[in-house]
Each structure stands twice: as C-alpha cells, then as structure tokens.
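Posting this for the archive.
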Amino acid sequence: MAPKFGTSGLRGLVSELTDDLCADYTRAFLSLSDAGRVLMIGQDLRPSSPRMARAVARAATGLGVTVVDCGALPTPALALAADARGAAAIMVTGSHIPADRNGLKFYTRKGEITKADEGTILAHLGSAGGGTDGPAKADPHAAAAYLERYLDFFGAGALDGLRLGVWQHSSVARDLLADLLSRFGAEVVCLGRSETFIPVDTEAVGGDTRTLLRGWAVSERLDAILSTDGDADRPLLTDRTGAVIAGDVLGVLTARLLGADCVVTPVSSTTMIEASGAFARTIRTKIGSPYVIAGLEGARTDGCRAVGFEANGGFLLGFVAERSGRKLSPLLTRDAFLPLIAPLVAARAAGCNLAALLAALPARRTASDRLEHVPTERALALVGALTSDPTRRAAFFRDFGAEVAVDLTDGLRVTFADGLILHLRPSGNAPELRCYAEDRDAARAEAAMREVLARAKAQLQ
C-alpha cells in the first residue's frame, strides 16, 4: 500500500518512505503559505526515523529554510515548541503502528495541517528541488519546556505519596514521563524498557499486555501504571489493579478537572460524555484529530471553554485553563501527558483512588480492538455492504437485539434497543478493521466486540 494521508498525517511502509519521497513531501509542505521559513523537526524511536529526519532536513535546507533539530521527543512537545516559536514542524513518527511502517506529521505556523492543506500538499508533489546537508540548529530545550508546562500548572507536589509505574517500552516519552512524575513527588518504578520498537495501541490493548500490566500492578504494589504510544500523543493509564482505563474516559475526567463546558469528540467516543451532565455541549465528529481540531476551532469562536479528545485518549486543550491561580495555555494537538496526570490529580482532590473515581461515573463502558492486516479496500467493502444491505446487517448483528439507530458519520455505528452500541470502521492510517463497543456492562461490551470481530474475520476470509 503506497504511503498516503490518513487520520494522523502521512503513513506508509518504511520500504516505500524513501529519502526521495520524504523530500518530495517536505518540499510540497513547505510550499504552503503558512509554512514559513523555519522548520522544526522531531522524531520517535523507530529505527527508520533518523534516516527519514535527515531526508526531511536536507530537503528543507535545499530550499533555504532554516532547520531546527529537536531530536527525539513527544509529538506534542514538538508542536508546543513550534507554536512558541511561530515555526512550522514535521514530526517523523508512525505513532502506534508497527516498526515496518512510519510517517510524517505536519504542522504549519497555525498548527496541525487541515484536510485542505493535505490536498494542497498532494497537488505540489513532484516539484523540483535539491537537497543539501546544510547546518541545522539544535534545540535541546523543546522537551524540557513541555515538561515544565505541566510542572508549572499542577505544582511540584501534585502526586506526593503515590507509587507509580511507568511502562517505558519504546515510547519516545519514557524518560521524560518518569522525570515529570518524580518531580511531582511520586515514587516512580520504571518497567519494561525495550531497545526494540514495540507498537502500543492505546485504543486496542491486547490480552497479553493487560496481563502484563496487572502482574506489575500487584507485584510492584503500584497505585497506577502510566504509559503512551510510540510518539506520546496517546495515553495509557491503569488503576491500582492494573486495569486499563479507556482513553475517552480519561478525557471525561480531564475535561471535568479543567472546567471545560464543551467537548468535541469523534462519534466513536463513549456516550458517558453526555450522560455525565458535566458539559453544556458535545460536538460529535468523524474520527481523527483534524476533524476534532476543526470542531474545536468552531467552538472557540463561539466562546466555549472547549476541549477535544478521542477514544484513543489523545487530548486537545482549546482554552486557557485555570486552577489554583495557575494557567495552562491551549495546545491543539493530541497530547498524552495531560490526560495521564489530570485523573490522578482529580482522584487525590476527591480523596479516593482511580477506581473509586471511575465508579462514580455513569455506567457506560467501552471496549475496542481491531483485525490487523486487512487491506483497506476489503474493510471498506465489508462495511459498505453492511451499511447498504439491511438484511445482511441484521444477519451480521444477529442476537444483539433490535436495531434502533444507525450512525454513518464514520463507518457503521449501530445502537440496539437495550443500549448496546457496536461500531465497525476501517482504520484511516493502517490496514486494519476496527470495532468499538459500548454497553452498561464492561464484560458484555468486551464480549460483543470480540464476537463482531470474529464474524467480520469470517466474512473477510
């Protein structure tokens, strides 16, 4: 599958993301009027990322653009640094997908590129341009500024007394997160560091990983385990038993702590958002940060204290949050650190643990996973057939009860009479078919999701 834009930038096989192709996309991106003449570059810890970052830098230097090398750091840290400098940025990352794939994520001086920008970039591919290994300025402070952002807002003793595990694996944020938690006063236990890239999808945490996390939580006597995906724009948080907390639930807890009155979120996120009664307005979008950002911009224009988040937990802050006299500036790109820290702070403020904080929320529980190595065209064909043929859809979803609503905002989302929701959607950035389930009971949501994936697999064979 040739590299293409998905929900999170350009993605493709490493073998196809050649130096020439990376340079071509870089030149096309820099043709945007909002790209400017300074380009900041960051990368994750995939083996292919340094090579791709060099190709991006050479292409930019060849156009006379000043290149600032920020090294390996979280995607939101690069976005924050670029915003502070009024510069464009390119992050070399494949996020949560396997190491045989990688990608480029683009930021103009106004922030993450829009779908319209993607069209302009595609139209400018193939433009002439050379490359040169000209000097790049180093910025060793970008990651530290990202850490200070949260240390300043929550305060040095925010997590005093907690014993927290950090599953480091191959996350680009593994050392930064451990450092931040220590400076918050927590006792930090580092777990599972790997020098081989491990793809961690916070939206589809597998059974082996869940068992690993539960084992660590018990053996290390932890209050919680924290981690991120590869480029640290998606959070993973467990309670003290090692049970993973869904990303959109982290979003609800974080938005509530920050005093948001409007939530912008994809259709795949939990209906707990509306059921909680905590927010005056909820705006539902297609899946992907560009759609959430577009919705956030509209909500900000209306004067709302708006935030955005996705089922994967990536959190976007759209207003200046204030707490105990401290302020936190907006950051309109997916972020993992804020939805990791805020729920822990909220639990401490309530005098309880994370499990008790969750128990007080409306009983809407979610589960999600995916079938991997499913060509996009086959996934689209299956979902399209179920969408257009009610008889086939009824047979596919047999035993789940009467269908009461169908939402086609992004994929096929069906609500049944007893409140169960099942949602099938081809991934926008990988050859996968995803399934989301929601119910009052977590076990039933999980079982229904597994059954739907099994039925989809049978029909795809």
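Residues 442-460 form the longest helix (19 residues). The two ends are 19 Å apart (CA to CA).
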